Amino acid sequence: GYAVVEAIRADANLGGANLRGANLRGANLGGANLRGANLGGAYLGGANLRGAYLGGANLRGAYLENTKFSDDVIA
Q1: Which Gene3D superfamilies does this entry report, sorted A to Z (predicted)?
Q2: Domains along the sequence of the chain with CATH
Q3: Which distant-in-sequence residues (6+ apart) come within 8 Å of 6 by Cβ?
Q4: Cβ–Cβ under 8 Å, residues 2 and 23
């Protein structure tokens, strides 16, 4: 089955985490470290990723409608 993540600290260190297929709808991940994380197929609709670090993250197939990103989010 798919993981459902209900509460993650905004500044969480999730570098390299396997969040494949996770439900992160509306999650506040601003400032989180998601470098190299596997978010393939994850549901991120309405999530706040402003200031999050996503360099090398796998977003293939992720649902991103209404997701908020910073301009430099993949730096």
Answers
A1: E3 ubiquitin-protein ligase SopA
A2: 1-65 (2.160.20.80)
A3: none
A4: yes
